[in-house]
Amino acid sequence: MDPDTARPPEPAVLDVLCPMHARLDGQGRIVHAGPMLAKLDGQGRHDARGGHDATDGNAAHDGNAAHDGNAGLTGRLFLEVFELRRPRIDRDFDALMGRDATRLRLRLRQRPGIGLKGVLVPVEGGALVDLSFGIALQDAVRAFALTAADFAATDLAIEMLYLIEAKSVAMEASRKLNLRLQGARLAAEEKAFTDTLTGLGNRRALEPVLTRLIETDSAFAVLNLDLDFFKAVNDTLGHAAGDHVLQLAARIMQDETREGDRVLRLGGDEFVIILQGPVDRARLDEIAARLIARLREPMIWEGRACHVSASIGMALSRDYPPLAAPALIAAMMEDADRALYAAKAAGRGCHVVHDPGAEGRDAVRS
Amino acid sequence: MQGLVNRAVERFVRDTYGRSTWLAIMRELDLGFSEFEAMLTYDPALTPRLLTAVAAALERPEADILEDIGTYLVSHPNVAAVRRLLRFGGDTFEDLLYSLEDLPGRAALAVPDLHLPPMDVADEGGGLFHLSIGSRDSPGHGFGHLAVGLFRAMADDYGALVVLQHTGTHAGAEQVEIEFLSADHAEGRGFSLGVVG
Questions:
Q1: In chain A, which segments carry CATH 3.30.450.260?
Q2: Which CATH superfamily is domain A203-365 in?
Q3: Residues B133-171: tens digit of each pLDDT
Q4: What is the DSSP letter of A23?
Q5: CATH code for A11-155?
Q6: Among this protein's residues, is A195 annotated catalytic?
């Protein structure tokens, strides 16, 4: 293209084809601004004062703003109104005139948040610039209260705005659905790990709880606890009484343990208590003795006393060499079980701590 | 996306007739749930059953219910998004009518598996437009009745005065006649391209 011979189209034609164009003279002064470009200036100033986003209500007002803005832009230096981001030539307008068409990235100095892109073509007596909003389209539409009529008939901006809004609505619906599904999943999971009778964790909770402790290198103790004489309660007073005893026993176990400890009911009259943190044998003896003492107190069911007791077998994690979680869980549960049977064999109502140094000869305490 | 359609019926019934009416309809259908999820898929055969149940519960013809759903979709604040998305179709009601042929494409852009029946708009001259919805292969499923309510409300939105009438089904296509009396009969509701707030 030869800038000396290229003649610009009539402004009225360009206003329709490229409503966001500007005609510049040889010094880079705006000689004419397309109707949409003019709106940027008018609204920009209005907004700088009012600070409000455009609303449905002020559409009529916009026409006036555009008119004023047109006058506002005309006569001003293009590079005063816009900050050129690329090419980086500061305010040296001549640098643009020596070339063929130049692609531009710019910012409105009044509203630096809104980026624009455009192209400048040198023409007879100056240059033509055509601009459009890039990715800032949504912000620009809001800031300058643009309507569909402002855009060129061929502009895809309206389709883009439609798409953004439609996708946002669909995405929001999906997000809400995901939240509901997530809530339902958590509830189902919690239910799956909970014993409905006592509200304690169930057998499924055992492995995850122990695995987490092992993998975080926490010290802990496992107490396997069986209620003694529970079957007698069930047989003589009925299942409702049995359930009552299980619920009371669960509450006692929770009362006697600290926050952070876990009480699980594996099924029937079998419970597991996981004590978190380092505990020594003396402290374990104390806890077990107190648990048994409290579980021995008669529980009243419909005016009748139910008598149970408890046998406890225990194992301490610090007695084991470092093992992978599954192996350590298996070893500790087996040893705690063996200790439990030793306690039962010793006449029930007592507890046994597994002693790794005295294999099979754990000391019975009561 | 049958969920979106079923959910629209649900929102209409709940917002217009109350939750207990809706729950009674769902009990009657005995589906094992009481609410539809817009973003889930359901058996397409369920929607006609749902409409029949709604019509029976409200003791009104299905065509009337569909028309009311169309009006509800563009005028109730609980579903304001529909009206906004339709307004992107054009700056005037006439533009909107012409944009109808794009509507299935626009809907699919927003939600890929929302399949609307094909639509054809013919300008018969003298302010008379002819809208044809669906085809032999892709039936309208009563969308024509919904369209009557929808565009009557959209005309209000633009401040235009129109008369709409469903004139039956020919060769699988539902026929709607739109008589365009005045473009600026009343003050329409404003619309800005940018979401306010």
A1: 11-155
A2: Reverse transcriptase/Diguanylate cyclase domain (3.30.70.270)
A3: 988 887 778 899 999 999 999 999 999 999 999 999 988
A4: E
A5: 3.30.450.260
A6: no
Cα–Cα distances in angstroms (integers) from residue A192 to residues A153, A202, A203, A243, A364, in the given order = 60, 8, 10, 20, 36
Distance from CA of B87 to the nearest CA of A (A): 9
Three-state DSSP state, A111: strand
Q: Residues A84, A86, A90, CA angle at the centre, nearest 5°?
A: 45
Out of B39, B106, B192, closest to residue A174 by CB: B39
- pLDDT tens for A203-241 read 999 999 999 999 999 999 999 999 999 999 999 999 999
**Does B88 sit within 8 Å of A162, measured CB to CB?**
yes
Q: Amino acid identity of B61?
A: P
Are B194 and A59 in contact (CB < 8 Å)? no
Instruction: Specify the pTM.
Output: 0.67
| pLDDT, position A252 | 96
Q: Which domains does chain B have, with CATH numbers?
A: 2-60 (no CATH), 91-182 (3.90.1520.10)
Contact state of A146 with B194 under an 8 Å Cβ cutoff:
yes
ipTM of the complex: 0.80
Sheet of strand B161-170: strand arrangement: B119-125, B128-133, B173-182, B161-170
How far apart, in whole angstroms, are the C-alpha atoms of residue A33 and residue A25? Answer: 12
A269, A285, A319, A355: the catalytic one is A269
- DSSP state letter for B134: -
CATH 3.30.70.270 spans which residues of chain A?
203-365
Report yes or no: A95 and A87 within 8 Å, Cβ to Cβ: yes
